[in-house]
Structures are given as C-alpha cells and as structure tokens.
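Dear all,

This email documents one entry for the complex benchmark we are building for the journal club exercise. For each entry we list the sequence lines for every component of the assembly. Then comes the predicted three-dimensional structure of the complex as a token string, followed by one or two observations. Please use this as the template for your own entries, and keep the labels exactly as they appear.
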Amino acid sequence: MDTIKTLMEHRSIRKYKNTPIPENILKQILEASFRASTTGNMQVYSIIVSQEKEMRKKLWELHFKQDMILQAPVTLTFCADFNRFNKWCKQRKAEPGYDNFLSFFTAAIDALLAAQNCAIAAESFGLGICYLGTVTYMSDKIAELLKCPEGVVPVATLVVGYPDESPELTDRLPYKGIVHHETYHDYSEDDINEIYREKEALPQTAELLRVNELETLAQIFAQKRYAKKDNVFFSKQFLKVIKDKGFMNND
Amino acid sequence: MDTIKTLMEHRSIRKYKNTPIPENILKQILEASFRASTTGNMQVYSIIVSQEKEMRKKLWELHFKQDMILQAPVTLTFCADFNRFNKWCKQRKAEPGYDNFLSFFTAAIDALLAAQNCAIAAESFGLGICYLGTVTYMSDKIAELLKCPEGVVPVATLVVGYPDESPELTDRLPYKGIVHHETYHDYSEDDINEIYREKEALPQTAELLRVNELETLAQIFAQKRYAKKDNVFFSKQFLKVIKDKGFMNND
C-alpha cells in the first residue's frame, strides 16, 4: 500500500474480529519496527508479544478493562530497555552508565519510534491498531505482570488485529494550530478560538456535552477524561517505576 | 512508494544536497505527521520548522555543530506542548491539570509519534532524514532559541533534505534479541554473546576499535559515545527544563 495513503488513512480501531494474524505477517510487522531510527543504533527497547488468552485477560484487567485487548489476537508492549545493553557492557569489560533519566528517555524514544513503525506496518497489511494510553498509568503493574527486570519500563502498548468497524477519520487541528515557522508563535485568544472552532462544532461534541452535562468540550477533558487528580496520581506512579527500574541515579 | 518498502529501506542520511524542498511536499509531510495517534486526540505537540539560514546556524551551534543542519534545507523540532491546550481550557472555563510529569510524557509521546510519521512520509518522497539525539541534551537552550513558552519542551529533532549519499542499511540485532513472547525472558550470558555477535563482527567495528584503541565495542559506547558523566549531566539539564516549563508539580 502507498506510504502516504497508509499514513493519511490511519484511524484507531476499537472493535476487532478474533481472526488470528498469520505468523509471517506478524513477523514482517515486527521486523519493520526494528528499522526505525534508534539512538546510536543501540536499540535500547524490547517488544513483548501477548497472544495467550490468559495473559491478555490479565493485561485487560490492568488496562482498565478495555475490551479491545480481549478481542484482538495480539497485544504488543514496547518497553524502554537498557537491561540487555547493560548486560552486554558488563560482559565486555565496559561500565554502563545508563541508570539515569536521560537514558530512560533515550530508551523510551527508541521504543516509541519502533511502536509507530509497527503501527504503520500493521495498517499497511489491512490490520487495525490502537494505542492504549493506560500503559503509562499502569506501567509498574504491567512491568510486574510481564516480568520486566531492572532497566525495563513499559512505555507504549498497541493492540493489533483485523478491524470489525470502519470508523470515519477523526478530526485534527488545522495546520496553523500545530506548525510554527522559525520560532514558536504563541497563541492569542483569537488564535485559540479559531484553532479549536472545528473540533467544538462537531456533532459528537454536542452529544458529549449533552451526555456529560457540561458547558464546554475543554471541561470534558479537564474534569472527566484527563483530570488533574488522576494525572498527579499517575505521575507519582510512573516516576516511581522509572526509579524502581533503576533510572533515577542522576548524581 | 509501498509502505513496507519505505519502512524497510530507512537509513539515516548524514550528507544532504542544498536543494530546497518544494513547499507542497513539505506541507504533505507535515500533514501526514498530524495523522499519527495522539492521546485522546488532544494533539499536545507542536512542530517548529527552521528554514532560515541564520536560524539553522544557531541550531547547528546548539546541536554540537552537526553539519547536516547547515546542509539540509529544513530542520524540524517536535515539542511536547500543553501550552495551546492549557490556553484553550482557560478560555473555556476549564481548569487544566497538566503541569505534571505524566502530562509531559503524554505530550512527548504525541510529539514522537508525529515525528516518526513525518520521517516516514519524507522518505516516501525520496527525502532523507536524520534524528538528532542532541535535542534532549540541549533541550533547554533549544527551547530558548525557538522561544518556547511554559508548557513547551523540545523532544525530537529531524533534519530533512535530499540525500547526498546512499549509505548501506545499518545492522540490527536479531529478532530474538528484541522480541519476547508472553513475558520478558531475561538474557543469559550465551544469549548476549549470540545477540551481539553480528554487530561485533562487522568490519566497521574492527575499524572503530583500532581508531579508539579500545578492546570492545561496548567500551566505545560506554566510555566514548554515551559516557556516564555526560548522561548524568544531561539528565539534570533535561529534568530542569521539564521542571522549568512547568511539568513537575506532582503533588
């Protein structure tokens, strides 16, 4: 499938058939993810493939019971991983210095770029994907379930399977809402009104406001979907797993 | 161009022609990047396009004088950005709760997935790209140069231009070095030897060892390229810019 077409037609799929993914296709998708850029070609990430029903059931519990995990045949957990690299260093008379925040972030970038390659490759085979944002909320518990050792932190989760729905493309902010030339041009009140106008005018926004009994779409985000108290709680949890996995020795 | 082919043929380009990128192609690339998944479709990232010579010269200084920035016509800086979303919330009677680490990481994920879409789209048009890892080292200075306000942190930089070299595909670790089934299977000493064997046997590895007068490739990484003292120094800097931009109120 044409690359730009694949990219432009992405939609997250939230209903899946239970059709298995042929092994050779899954392999090609994973191998396409390996080709993503990584810092210094260190490839400091790992991909954990969950296919067994029992394991997906446990992941489903941890990911706030999102049924996509039970429907789709494969869940992929992308982890920042310096464990393998550290072991290699130690076996080769080199002292690894990767127990700090920069190294965590470097490894997270590797994992995320690989994940996006994986998503695109899957879509090019007619598969659907959805990222599960719950992975960063529950990274500590997911790490425990998947037996991640020191140096390994889950940072992205993809469900992959054959779509059982054909959703419309979702809205995006206009070009001028995202792109800045030469320097960041901060937004005036009018800019903000213009950038969010289309999103606010969507029929589904009206429906959301009705169901949630709120006045603005921003309130639905800030009060319901991504509320401060949850963000603060999960910030602590996520920082804790980063520390517990040995990435916070910054002195 | 076929998607899998685009993904499988990626190589980072480090020499560029100064041929400009036609405006309509640059626009298509950026628009392809907007289609990447983002948390809750919030699109909490911005892309800063640097094309002016003077600006690229300043970026070149900050990015450790990597000449790619001077050669290629476009440098793109992808920023985690809650500034726009926060302003929208405030204009819509909603109290944003995004001044914490989880929100930073959420926004960084958005920025990185968009960056990878951008890289792939560019390559599908015959352009070359290279990620500059220096962005996380110098994020504070780059933010200052690009006038990033509170809520905005540079997390990925891509140079984009027409390639002036045709490098070979670089090596990757074997499948079993990256992929785990059901749970993370930690590596034995033999596993590590096997996983890194091919990389260690490359002719360029022999050359690197000779030039650096070191015994193992791992020592080149751990002592020269990505040494502990640098990682620790840049960890502090990066955590500081995350805090300075208002993302460390986790209580």
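Observations: Chain A touches chain B through 122 residues (CB under 8 Å). DSSP finds 13 helices and five strands in chain A.
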